Amino acid sequence: MFINDILIDWNRIEEDSYLQTINAIGGIERITLTNPVTFFIGENGSGKSTLLEAVAIAEGFNPEGGTKNYSFSTYDSHSELCDATRLSRGTIKADWGYFLRAESFYNVATKEEEYSKGPGGDPQHLHEQSHGESFLQMAQSNFREKGLYLLDEPEAALSPQRQLTLLIEIDRCVKEGAQFIIVSHSPVLLGYPEAQILTFDNGPIHPCAYEDTDSYKITSLFINNREQLLNQLFRNNDIL
Ligand SMILES: Nc1ncnc2c1ncn2[C@@H]1O[C@H](COP(=O)(O)OP(=O)(O)OP(=O)(O)O)[C@@H](O)[C@H]1O
């Protein structure tokens, strides 16, 4: 494990900051990571990306994504949580890492192409591929053993089949000593065996079993009772 704990110093955050009102993280001082793969799950707006971004910046990544060598910025939007976050690290330092966010992927792909055309680079043509193809290629070419990877909703670009491919890539790297922290709503990705799943729903961030995640429960309810569920949903509009 390269990161064991995420530590937040709330004295460094203004009392009237919106961060104090995010139920999952407001006032939380320590989040312990127990497994090589940790998932952040929870409703839209529950604070997952905010925390992942703070971890990424504390680790030295560019807020928009990429490797630690990426220094571009198209929009400065990171929160003050970044300045208040420290990481408690393991004894071994990650010799490589990547921060991949679905929302700023286009800008990172542009930079990746630019950097790859430099001296000694392997020219990439990410913009000549589909969103999912280029996203997966970027992951495959940047995932290495003994790396630290922070992924924000990687499923956004990927078909279910390619999500399985991503799981294979994750597993390959974990077996070689990599660590992943992944924000996800995908019942496919969340199914990775032995993952630590931390939910941002229903109060302070806490562990959750795979079968108790909304992603799993709602997807299985939908698949197993589609007609009944939709009939009720369209009639009552309040089943969920
Ligand atoms: N600059 C800001 N000012 C005020 N509130 C903000 C700001 N940035 C984010 N928020 C709020 O912080 C909360 C957490 O946002 P965040 O993007 O971390 O959610 P999330 O769990 O990643 O959601 P999603 O699953 O939709 O990506 C949201 O309610 C959001 O509206």
TrEMBL record:
Keyword terms: ATP-binding, Cell membrane, Ion transport, Iron, Iron transport, Membrane, Nucleotide-binding, Transport
Topology in the lipid bilayer: Peripheral membrane protein
The ABC transporter domain, residue ranges: 8-227
Swiss-Prot/TrEMBL GO biological process terms: double-strand break repair; iron ion transport
PROSITE patterns documented for this protein: ABC_TRANSPORTER_2
A single cellular component GO annotation: plasma membrane
PANTHER family in UniProt: IRON(3+)-HYDROXAMATE IMPORT ATP-BINDING PROTEIN FHUC
Identification of the protein by name: Putative ATPase
